[in-house]
Specification:
The protein has about 450 residues and is α/β, with parallel strands linked by helices. The chain folds into three domains: about 5-125, 3-Layer(aba) Sandwich (Rossmann fold), CATH 3.40.50; about 160-255, Putative Large Serine Recombinase, Chain B, Domain 2 (Hect, E3 ligase catalytic domain fold); about 260-454, no CATH class. It is built from 17 helices and 15 strands. It has helices at about 10-15, 20-35, 55-65, 75-80, 85-95, 115-145, 170-190, 190-200, 210-215, 240-255, 290, 305, 320-340, 350-370, 380-405, 410-420, 425-435, and strands at about 5-10, 40-45, 70-75, 100-105, 110, 160-165, 165-170, 225, 230, 270-275, 280-285, 295-300, 320, 440-445, 445-450. β6 (about 160-165) and β7 form a beta hairpin. The longest helix has about 35 residues, at about 115-145. It is extended, with a radius of gyration of 31 Å. The mean pLDDT is about 80. Pfam families: Recombinase, Resolvase, Zn_ribbon_recom.
Length: about 450
């Protein structure tokens, strides 16, 4: 027998207008009985607007989506009053999880060919609206670019310029910085050397990547760009075209010299320096002599040590041999998985579904009382509904927390099977497993601390 989730939403005003919880519940349960569907759970959002998806019972239902075969509502607008949100729920949550959706009033049923066709028609119109808006925005951007009014980055001031009245104007102080970077790159052919020299000359040094982007940007010779195309701008250029293209030749010549050196760094993006708070980066080094023998040494190092010109002072935290640190972390990973799998004691579960149903009944009684007693102040009702919904939200949070606490063992069982074959996996698969298990790695000299995700 298929599991059906009954979803009910009602606002205080709709409670009076014959959309009461009891009316919806009665008709939906009768529908399930007639169709031979088992009611898995009834999810009730009382006193919530259909203009938002931020509803506790709706969130709870989506969290249980793997256990559900069909979602049933009394009327389509009970799910949402927004067509966009309705389609998002149906397409991104229900259909992707092979869950049918039924609205008994509109006789909309995605398990039937007609119901699927109706969703398809609604989706086509929604997609048409999205693409029309996107095309209008794109044409507007192109028009601005053709008029020379679009600058690097679109919405922020590019280095060497500031925005005023929708146009770019030269920032003289930053323009000197950019010009000096072009001059120094022609001299040293190295962005790291540029940073060192600029720091010596008293400039506030930017990040490596920013200089790389600046040196390749046609903005400085008078062009603006959009969608990969360049247009003649209305701003004042301050780099000579001859120099710009000389720099492009140098950049092209050095392109790939350091490429892919850190590609196989398993822990990149996970390591934090405990001394200065910066990330650790991967890099490789070799001398001319060792390179001829194919000997390249790989390390993890603090970014403030690798690029000291970008910081007030150079970090002195330890460099780690890449292979040694990765092996240490992998050993800890395998060890902790074994320990976690062996640590499966008895768990006392609280029946939060029962407690939530009791809260729903309490809410139902209050709304029913309001619909039959017009002497009750709407303000008092709203406060009571808000109080009950807050109680329900807390119960739903506790239910989710309890479910997560009981879930790791299943997850770890699966991961444990993967880790057994870890050494035979591709690099991308290894990295996916490491990232799914590790939140952060903190390094302080020889001390390595691992924060796990479970």
């Amino acid at each position: 027998m298929k599991n059906a989730a009954i979803y009910i939403r009602v606002s205080t005003q709709e409670q009076v207008e014959n959309y009461s919880i009891e009316v919806q519940k009665e008709r939906l349960e009768a529908f399930c009985k007639a169709k031979g569907l088992n009611v898995y759970n009834t999810y009730i959002d009382g006193g919530f607007s259909g203009a938002t998806l931020n509803r506790p019972a709706l969130k709870s239902m989506l969290n249980d989506i793997k256990e559900i075969d069909t979602v049933i509502v009394y009327k389509l607008d009970r799910l949402s009053r927004s067509q966009k949100d309705t389609l998002e729920l149906i397409e991104e949550y229900f259909l992707k999880n092979k869950v049918d959706f039924i609205s008994i009033t509109e006789t909309l049923d995605t398990s039937t060919p007609f119901g699927k066709a109706m969703i398809g028609i609604l989706s086509v119109f929604a997609q048409l609206e999205r693409e029309t808006i996107a095309e209008r925005m794109r044409m507007g951007h192109i028009k601005r670019a053709e008029n020379g009014l679009r600058g690097m980055g679109g919405d922020y001031d590019p280095a060497g310029y500031f925005r005023k009245d929708g146009a770019l104007h030269v920032n003289e102080e930053e323009a000197k910085h950019v010009k000096r970077a072009f001059d120094l790159y022609e001299q040293y052919h190295s962005i790291t050397k540029i940073q060192e020299r600029l720091k010596e000359e008293g400039y506030k040094v930017w990040r490596f990547r920013r200089y790389r982007d600046i040196l390749a940007n046609k903005l400085y010779i008078g062009y603006v760009s959009f969608a990969g195309k360049h247009y003649k701008g209305q701003h004042t250029p301050f780099i000579e075209e001859e120099q710009f293209y000389r720099v492009q030749d140098l950049l092209e010549r050095h392109k790939g010299h350091n490429a892919h050196k850190a590609k196989k760094a398993l822990l990149v993006g996970l390591i934090t320096c405990d001394k200065c708070g910066e990330n650790y980066v991967s890099y490789s080094t070799s001398s001319r002599a060792t390179r001829s023998y194919g000997r390249i040494y790989y390390y993890y190092t603090c970014r403030a040590r690798r690029f000291p010109s970008e910081y007030e002072e150079k970090c002195a935290n330890k460099n780690w041999n890449r292979q040694k640190l990765e092996q240490m972390v992998l050993n800890e990973m395998k060890k902790i998985i074994v320990n976690k799998n062996n640590d499966k004691g008895p768990v006392n579960k609280i029946n939060y579904d029962k407690l939530i149903k009791e809260v729903d009944l309490k809410l139902e009684r209050i709304l029913e009382l309001y619909s039959t007693n017009t002497n009750i102040s709407p303000d008092i009702l709203e406060k009571q509904v808000e109080k009950i919904n807050l109680e329900k939200e807390k119960l739903l949070e506790k239910k989710l927390k309890q479910a997560k606490e009981n879930e790791p063992n299943k997850v770890l069982d699966k991961i444990n099977k993967l880790v057994i074959n870890f050494d035979e996996m591709s690099f991308s698969d290894k990295q996916a497993i490491v990232n799914s298990l590790i939140e952060n790695i903190t390094v302080n000299e020889n001390d390595v601390s691992i924060d796990w995700r479970f």
